[in-house]
Amino acid sequence: MLILIVATIISMLVGDPTDGSIIIAILLASGILGFTQEFRANNDVAALLARVEVKVPVIRGGREIDVPVAEVVPGDLVQLGAGASCRPTADSLSARTCSSTSRRSRGSRSRPRRMPRFRCHPTPR
User: Fold this and answer.
1) What is the spatial distance between Cα 10 and Cα 57, in angstroms, rounded to a whole number?
2) Distance from the CA of 75 to the CA of which of 4, 57, 94, 105 falls in 20 to 30 A?
3) DSSP structure class, residue 106
4) Measured in whole angstroms, how far is the alpha carbon of residue 94 from the centre of its chain?
């Protein structure tokens, strides 16, 4: 793209406005097509995410049920399978090993840029 812009400038300076105009038209068409495709793709992803409802298995009232993530309340016991990840606000009752993607949990003093995720491997029953 940068090469085409430089070519347009050189073409205009040399005195050939026809080639420069053609290159500008191609750049504008490319930009409009790229923007339109990106805009439609973002709308499609938003529509798909609106249809998807992520559920998590929890123990509530002594029974294991699947609940939408937004409806998990304090007191629910979230069932994590091997390789599952959760926010650090969840309490872990029993786990064999837990690891984190956060530098803070590994001893770093710098503030993490995003909320850390913990990966827990449940204790075998």
Assistant:
1) 64
2) 105
3) G
4) 29
Residue extents of the structural domains in the chain: 2-51, 56-122
Q: What is the pLDDT of residues 29-81, one digit of tens each?
A: 999 999 999 999 999 999 998 888 888 888 888 888 998 888 888 888 887 77
> Residues, the chain, total?
125
Tokens of 32: 């409009």
**Crossing angle for the helix pair 2-14 and 17-51, to the nearest 10 degrees:** 160
Query: What does the pLDDT read at residue 85?
Result: 63
Tokens describing residue 105? 């949990």
103 contacts 85 by C-beta, under 8 angstroms: no
pLDDT number for residue 94: 53
| Nearest Cα residue to 91 out of 66, 61, 59 | 59
